[in-house]
Amino acid sequence: xxxxxxxxxxxxxxxxxxxxxxxxxxxxxxxxxxxxxxxxxxxxxxxxxxxxxxxxxxxxxxxxxxxxxxxxxxxxxxxxxxxxxxxxxxxxxxxxxxxxxxxxxxxxxxxxxxxxxxxxxxxxxxxxxxxxxxxxxxxxxxxxxxxxxxxxxxxxxxxxxxxxxxxxxxxxxxxxxxxxxxxxxxxxxxxxxxxxxxxxxxxxxxxxxxxxxxxxxxxxxxxxxxx
Length: 227
Ligand SMILES: Nc1ncnc2c1ncn2[C@@H]1O[C@H](COP(=O)(O)OP(=O)(O)O)[C@@H](O)[C@H]1O
Ligand SMILES: [Mg+2]
Fold this sequence. Notes:
alpha/beta, globular, binds magnesium ion
């Protein structure tokens, strides 16, 4: 199996870990049929990628077989941010969706125990078309058999349509909302778009909550229902 080393996975601080553990618990209460979960948001930089990987990590730490899929074919940060090292050049989702490689050639076993990863692959001129083809559906259906949880990181739904194409393949979606920067109206719009796809909205994560007016680096995660 292909191997990828995350050379820079930071230990989570206590409050982040606690918040993610309660997110994991809340997910359990959403029911056992929610195996394929997609995270999206209104805008870029609200924390989708950070939350996706951290959620995958806490699920993996709980003994679940988890696969994290980076489906942000436009602005992937995973490889650069976490200093990913692989022996060969990375083959990713865009290679697979364009029919260039098989599934086995894009799944990497990571140095985070129980967590495998599919990287986004190189930028393509037509991400929405690629994500909309039947390859993605087939991939997710197969992964669902092999893993306990499939976590999918996506681009923001408020700015590109890719996520609307991805979510019908998922059991549920979580909306990541950056505290105090996103308007109620923007969230409602994205919620409406998600509802139009028919996907189950599992809830929202209010991210980067600045409790007690602490400096910005003391952000915490929090979760509440979007309904
Ligand atoms: N809970 C958090 N606390 C502090 N910083 C955060 C948190 N979530 C995300 N960030 C930071 O915000 C920036 C954008 O996060 P990222 O996950 O890349 O957003 P997105 O995937 O939505 O574009 C990154 O620099 C990340 O480190
Ligand atoms: Mg991202």
